Structure formats: structure tokens, C-alpha cells
Amino acid sequence: MDAYVDLVERITPGEQIHRVLGWPDQIQADMQLECQLVTHGLYVGDETGFDDPRARELARGAEDWRLLLQLDSDETIGMMWGGVGRLYWWIREAELRTRRFDASWLILQCG
Asked: Quick one: which H or E segment has residue 81?
């Protein structure tokens, strides 16, 4: 993973990384499990949701989540997300297919 990150930084130094679908360029931890737990009522602002007895069963559905949109901070146009962070919108595969964008989930990550 470190080699991949180094390669991306050499190819696109200082450039913003926006995505529509595909794989996220995450700053922190994996977000698919977070989306799955939150949409089932578990709090993930700390470890309590991840330690909840229901989390293990719910984790099976984490693979259904897909990146819908990633917006990077871009100071030149006035978009700054939590100190050079990124916004990520996630959606379940089935809801993406039926265009139920109201069922998407937003996560902010910053370094």
C-alpha cells in the first residue's frame, strides 16, 4: 500500500483526488464497515459501535457499500474539508442500481 501511495503522489503531486465511483483514496480507516454499522443504528464516533455484539453480524454487509463520490479539499476554489480532508459519499450496490441516492452516506476524513 505504501508503494502505491508513493506512486500516486509522484504522478499527481499536489493535485486534488476526486472520484466518481471506483476506489476511495482514504485518509484514515476503511469506511465500508462504518457505513454498515451506522445505518443499522450503531454509533461509530468511538469504539463502542465496533465493539457492539451486533457489529460482527452486520460486518458481513459491509462489502455491499460502494464509493459514489469523493471530493478532495481544494483551497483554490474555496473547498476545505476539516483541514485538507476529503468528503466521501457511499451507497449500497442495490441502491445505486435503483438510483436511490437518498440512501447514501457521507463521511469526512482528514489527516
From this structure: none
Three-state secondary structure call for residue 49: helix
Could you give the CA distance from residue 76 to residue 93 in angstroms, rounded to a whole number?
34
- pLDDT of 13 > 70? The answer is no
pTM of the predicted model as reported, rounded to 2 decimal places: 0.75
Q: Encode pLDDT of 36-88 as tens digits.
A: 898 998 888 888 888 889 998 998 999 999 999 888 787 777 777 777 778 88
Chain Cα centroid distance, residue 18: 12
In this predicted structure, the answer to whether residue 3 has a pLDDT above a threshold of 80 is yes
First to last CA, the chain: 17
- Burial of residue 91, with CB atoms counted within 10 A of its CB: 0-12 exposed, 13-18 middle, 19 or more buried: buried
The Cα–Cα gap between 57 and 80 comes to 36
Q: What is the amino acid identity at position 54?
A: R
Q: In sequence order, what are the residues at sequence separation of 6 or more whose Cβ sits closer than 8 angstroms to the Cβ of residue 108?
A: 81, 82, 85, 86, 87, 88
